[in-house]
Amino acid sequence: MGADHHHGQHDHGSGSSRRRLGIAALLTAGFMVAEAIGGIVTGSLALLADAAHMMTDTVSLGFAWWAFRIAANPPTAERTFGNRRFPVLIAFANAIAIMMLAAFILLEAAQRFAEPVEILAGPMLVVAVTGLLVNIAAFLVLATGERGNLNVRGALLHVAGDLLGSLAAILAAIVILASGWTPIDPLLSVLVALLIIAAAVRLARDSGHILLEGAPRGLAPQKIRAVIGEDIAGLRAVRHIHVWALDQDRPLVTLDAEIEPGADALGAVAEIKRRLEADLDIHHTTVEIVAPDAAPAAVAACGRQGRPQGQQAANPTRRA
Fold this sequence. Notes:
This protein has helices at about 15-40, 45-70, 85-115, 120-145, 150-180, 185-210, 220-230, 265-280, 295-300; strands at about 235-245, 250-260, 285-290, 315-320. The chain is an alpha+beta fold. The model is unreliable at about 1-10 and about 295-315 (pLDDT under 50). It is a multi-pass membrane protein. One of its GO terms (molecular function) is zinc ion transmembrane transporter activity.
């Protein structure tokens, strides 16, 4: 039994992303305390909501930074793929945390509509503008990194939510200064919370799809079969194609290859792997070689949980 363990060059940006996450975490943590104090002093829900989000961001960015360090650890006997899926798990947890925080903001906003509070719009505007500048800096730091990485996407989502929160607080402060209409503060907080929930749902869907072993987008079994084709010498059929992903960068494939008697089985397997790597950037493919007369037995056995002790397989198979 063997397997192809070639991996693509997906690690070159991990160190850069880790550094960017660290910088963003420090920027976020540095302003979080000031904004929380400002929200309490001014009575602004928009500022308090953004401060609460920044507190969650500080923790989430720290976990995201740690996830990259954990993922870089080499495989072990117990974790043969290493910790490559850990960042995906953190991204999913981030999405859930964001949705819970947004729900809290919605509840608090409902209370503010029922019982308006006095808001000091002048100091609120100063704090909100400062927060906007900090959030823009953190967003730019992250946006120039690996934006396709789920963990970086989760971090960007957190910071983007903070940025929207700062913009909402600025607008609310201006409206209150100009007209004294305080309901604008919880109203804009609701708008920001709904935008955050929509983005968090997308992140949870994408990361959850990987955690549930879903086929990566564009890599359905039909696509795999089409890329392999029907013109490989000695290959009669391809069966039991399974596609999933270790993380957002590393798709994996297992399949059975029915080989003609006397054909170059290893050559056919090598060509299967070459095509998948060249056309679909799949660098980890495990192929089980099945003789033609063994294929029906293999298909029948697919639905059984196990073979009674002592029963022998009707035909041998090999993995490559």
